[in-house]
Automatic annotation (TrEMBL):
Stated name of the protein: Cation/H+ exchanger transmembrane domain-containing protein
GO molecular function, one term: antiporter activity
Function, as annotated: May function as sodium-coupled metabolite transporter across the chloroplast envelope.
Species per Swiss-Prot/TrEMBL record: Eragrostis curvula (weeping love grass)
Membrane association type: Multi-pass membrane protein
Parts of the chain that traverse the membrane: 29-52, 64-85, 91-113, 125-147, 159-182, 194-218, 238-259, 271-302, 322-340, 352-379, 385-405, 417-439
GO cellular component entries: chloroplast envelope; endomembrane system; membrane
PANTHER family the UniProt entry points to: CATION/H + ANTIPORTER (PTHR32468), OS05G0382200 PROTEIN (PTHR32468:SF84)
Length: 464
């Protein structure tokens, strides 16, 4: 089998085989192998989701654990399995499919951001989000020297870019994960849930601005290509930031009003026919534009989703059509591929595992401490403020986006990537039981029906 894979990698990969009767193994060809890979990923991750359901864990936990189980940390040690199901030559196709799922999901996240909730809760949500970001961000410069001592590695990143990436990874809150946890606990629509969702929405905006800054100061690393120059001109980060700001300004100030005007003129019937295909096409092209700028394509899709007009039900119809495919198929592939890229064996030795403990502590205490202090100062009761601190510590989607981009840009090495994936898993696993212990709402059936902040686009499960 190893010889077969070697021969497959030495020639252009064909889409499909001519069949076993003509002596060709379908798993040596791109489409049949991709189908098998997706099937294996879905079976493993959905099976783990069923096992973890009694613990009320979000599906992202099962999906990342499934990828780790299939990757070099577990089944990937078995060379026959690795060379047959996940050979190196197939990585590009699987990563591309998972990246497409991520781009579309970030578009949906932007589509579902409820700015009305931010306005309703007011300054409290902004204060909570800002406080939860500042402390972890300030801790990042102190972590970088310790990381260099505990995990010495050749990193293609400056001190500043590494600080910004680590700060982004430590300070983010996963809005979709938090929404799913709150839905599981019956907290959507109550004041606590409104505050948490609004703060997470503000946090998402801060996180994407921070990620754009990280991408700019990293200068693209070495691009992963040996023939590309590794030194970035000094002004390139300035160009990237200026171009990104101009893109956001154009989307918010020009494109959003134009789309709203067109939606009103076209009417709901004509909009319904064009919404899905046209809007998805624009989201993909927005990703292309930000990639050309030097920022990751998911940022463009996210901004386009935020800018989508809510008039005429365009956003809602698009979400209803796109979400089932993305959350049911493409997004689990993305999380699983993150797990496949995680080699826990890279974290070895007391110093490295000590770094894991330190990173988890900084991520939890930084988010919890800042959020708790801001919530308490704005009049939130003690136990509720503590539960809010735990809620804002939930990681998941945005965390993995930051980590994967950092790895692509050669800012994060394999060991650092594994350390932060472990941190993301730990904080997400702890969120539900700690919130359940800290906050027990007493809501009536009428209150449960009056949900002002909810999961849209059919996300009734816990996709992220």
């Amino acid at each position: 089998m190893a010889a077969a894979n070697s021969s497959a990698s030495s020639r252009p990969v064909k889409m499909a085989s001519d069949g076993l009767w003509q002596g060709e193994n379908p798993l040596d060809f791109a489409l049949p192998l991709l189908a098998v890979q997706i099937a294996v990923i879905l079976v493993v991750t959905q099976g783990l989701a069923l096992v973890l359901r009694p613990l009320r864990q979000p599906k992202v936990v099962a999906e990342i654990l499934g990828g780790i189980l299939l990757g070099p940390s577990a089944l990937g040690r078995w060379s026959a399995f690795h060379l047959t199901i996940f050979p190196a030559w197939s990585a590009a196709a699987l990563d591309t499919v998972s990246g497409l799922g991520l781009l579309l999901f970030l578009f949906l996240v932007g589509l579902e951001l409820d700015f009305g909730a931010v306005r309703r809760v007011g300054p409290r949500s902004v204060a909570v989000a800002a406080a939860g970001i500042v402390l972890p961000l300030l801790a990042a410069p102190g972590l970088v020297p310790l990381l260099n001592l505990a995990v010495p590695a050749s990193r293609h990143a400056s001190f500043l870019s590494l600080c910004v990436f680590l700060g982004a990874a430590l300070s983010v809150t996963a809005l979709p994960v938090l929404a799913c946890i709150l839905k599981e606990l019956g907290l959507l629509g109550v004041p606590f849930g409104d505050t948490a969702m609004a703060a997470a929405a503000v946090n998402d905006i801060f996180a994407w601005a921070l990620l754009a800054l990280a991408l700019a100061v990293s200068g693209g690393g070495d691009g992963g290509h040996e023939n590309e120059p590794k030194d970035t001109p000094f002004l390139v980060p300035v160009y990237i930031l200026a171009s990104g700001a101009a893109f956001v300004a154009f989307m918010l100030c020009a494109l959003r009003p134009l789309m709203a005007r067109l939606a009103r003129r076209a009417g709901p019937d004509r909009v319904a026919g064009l919404a899905c295909s046209g809007v998805v096409c624009c989201a993909l092209l927005a990703g292309v534009v930000t990639d050309a700028i030097g920022v990751h394509p998911v940022f463009g899709a996210f901004v386009f989703g935020v800018c989508m007009p809510r008039e005429g039900g365009v956003a809602e119809r698009t979400g209803e059509k796109v979400a089932p495919l993305v959350t049911g198929l493409l997004l689990p592939i993305y999380f699983a591929t993150s797990g496949l890229h995680t080699d826990v064996d890279k974290v070895h030795g007391a110093a490295a595992w000590g770094m894991v403990a330190l990173v988890v502590a900084v991520a939890c205490l930084g988010k919890f401490g800042g959020t708790f202090a801001a919530a308490a100062l704005t009049g939130v009761a003690g136990r509720e403020a503590a539960a809010l601190g735990v809620a804002m510590s939930a990681k998941g989607l945005v965390e993995l986006v930051v980590l994967n981009i950092g790895k692509e840009r050669k800012v994060l090495d394999d060991t650092t990537f594994a350390i932060f994936v472990i941190m993301a898993l730990t904080t997400t696993v702890l969120a539900t039981p700690l919130m359940t212990a800290l906050y027990r709402p007493t809501t009536s059936a009428a209150d449960a029906d009056d949900v002002s902040v909810e999961l849209k686009a059919g996300n009734d499960g816990c996709p992220a």
